[in-house]
Amino acid sequence: MKIIFKIHYSFIILVMFLILMGYINYVICFMIILMIHECGHILMIKILKYDIEEIHIYGTGGVIKTNIDINIPSSKYFLISIGGIFMQLMLFFLPLHNKVFITINISLIIFNLLPIYPLDGYNIFLSLTEYFLPYRYIIKISYLISLIFLFIFFKSTLNILIFIFLYLLNIKYILMHHYYMEKFFLERYLYGIKYHHPKIVKDIRNIYKCRKNYLKYDNILVSEEKYYAKRYSNY
Predict the structure, then answer these.
(1) Is residue 205 located within the same domain as residue 101?
(2) Given 50, 136, 217, 226, which is the most exposed site by the fewest CB atoms within 10 A?
(3) Whether residue 55 is found in the same domain as residue 70
(4) Could you tell me which of 188, 216, 169, 224 has the C-alpha nearest to residue 58?
(5) Domain count, the chain
(6) 187 and 204 share a domain?
(7) d(CA 90, CA 69)
(8) How many CB atoms are closer than 10 A to CB 186?
């Protein structure tokens, strides 16, 4: 499969701004670390046998579009999300003495660990918590946490460009909540996704991503598979 690389205008603006300010060494270090970080994600995606469709480079980092479903097992979701940061951590074991390179690497690790959509920290947060609460609740909690940390980031750095860019992405993501939830349900129906740990819920909206859910109606248990079969039978 052919992988398409796309450079977002925010990355071009950032690079041009740093060059005009005379920070060419910062640009070089940033691009090297960015490539190493994305290679960590790509390597983990390939190890877990998923396909990569597009790689987008933004001013805040890279976004890799894949064929990974929302219902990916949490363990795999975590490994893919942590892959880029893991590769950056490995750089500390190399005999590097460039202070600019080390400073940028540390800064990008901290930045990527923030639980702000679509940063790695956000995906790591989801992968670590979606087993314990209904998926709908986890997603709504993640929206709130993402926005809170985004405003904390802005207050701490006063970086208006990154703030606006991430804020718009978050608003767009939140507005598509119903679409993603329906996709979540439809994937479980179409792909017959199986989990082994049972969970009884009273409402289909409260199902757990990483559990085998049963809906309870008047003391009768109905598997989510039967529910989906009835729900989507007319489509």
Answers:
(1) no
(2) 217
(3) yes
(4) 169
(5) 2
(6) no
(7) 29
(8) 16
Mean pLDDT, residues 70-97 taken together: 92
Least confident of 24-28, 77-81, 88-92: 24-28
**Separation between Cα atoms, residue 187 and residue 197, nearest integer Å:** 19
| Separation between Cα atoms, residue 5 and residue 54, nearest integer Å | 6
Say which range, 109-113, 114-118, 160-164, 169-173, has the weakest mean pLDDT. 160-164
Using H for helix, E for strand and C for coil, what is the string for 134-172?
CHHHHHHHHHHHHHHHHHHHHHHHCCHHHHHHHHHHHHH
Same domain assignment for residues 131 and 27: yes
Same-domain check for residues 145 and 217: no
Global confidence as pTM: 0.87
pLDDT at 1 over 60: no
- In this structure, are 74 and 166 located in the same domain? yes
- Nearest Cα to Cα of residue 149 among 194, 190, 195, 110: 110
- Structural domain including 79 reads 4-192
